[in-house]
């Protein structure tokens, strides 16, 4: 009986030690998805990692290091490899600038977009990092038309992890944001990677979502309260019908109602299939916006506010 009791206690002790060991192996740190390219360079896939750094700069270094390393999944390859090395990086406020070597310019179009998306989507998960800028040999990264790409955010890459990107298209949209005093409009061109295989993301919705995301520079300012929700968007006979929730009535900064309305209208009318815009609030269009605009109005382009 004593021998059996001793054996039982031994088993219990071993189980206890095993539980302690498992608890010690429990991952800690900031849970982060690091994005890698598959070996055929047609899509992105994420691997889960736990960042051990405690400061923003430590976590940036950790993410950049992981992007250079071979991932655990043997179907994937390191994102920054084949001579596309990191020269240096900087962190200023909420902006991370990553300088890559000249080999980056030799990447084929699809691989370049995937690499750019992997870097941005991985770094953007770090707290206090809002924008990522990539430079090549110290020079700004340019798109295929020779335009500077500038600051990037994760939502500029509309593919999901694992989505095929061989059906992507690079689009440039023209957005209208507010000037410093809120009484005029500033036109900004923004280049995005748009996955045309995602049927639920129309160009009209994309434009409005980018307006809600706000500008990515210090020369222009938001026109719409960022808490605003776009409830629906449809297009018929050249008219874009938008339905927002009531948060749109809450002003942002000192933006006038004229500037807010025509930032939306002018941005959408830049699309070739839209001539006019009608706005509803919580499904209601038989009302006035800030006691000035009748929402039954079909708004047309108005460039008189443009600086």
Q: Please report the total strand number as a whole number.
A: 14
Strand order of the largest sheet: 4-5-6-7
Helix content class = 10-25%
Cα-atom Rg, whole angstroms? 25 Å
Structural class category: alpha+beta
**How far apart lie the N and C ends?**
93 Å
Main sheet record: 4 strands, mixed
Report on this model:
Helix 2 runs antiparallel to helix 3 and helix 4 runs antiparallel to helix 5 (257-269). The protein has 307 residues and is of the alpha+beta class. It has helices at 2-24, 56-68, 109-123, 203-213, 257-269; strands spanning 30-38, 44-51, 76-77, 86-92, 95-100, 131-136, 139-140, 168-178, 185-195, 230-236, 239-244, 276-281, 288-289, 293-294. The strands form five sheets. Strands 4-5-6-7 form a four-stranded mixed sheet, with helices on one face. Strands 2-1-3 form a three-stranded antiparallel sheet. A three-stranded mixed sheet has the order 10-11-12, covered by helices on one side. It contains five helices and 14 strands. The protein has two domains: 29-154, no CATH class; 167-307, no CATH class.
Give me the secondary-structure topology.
Blueprint: H1 2-24, E1 30-38, E2 44-51, H2 56-68, E3 76-77, E4 86-92, E5 95-100, H3 109-123, E6 131-136, E7 139-140, E8 168-178, E9 185-195, H4 203-213, E10 230-236, E11 239-244, H5 257-269, E12 276-281, E13 288-289, E14 293-294
Parallel strand pairs: 5-6, 11-12
Antiparallel strand pairs: 1-2, 1-3, 4-5, 6-7, 8-9, 10-11, 13-14
Helix pairs in contact: 2-3, 4-5
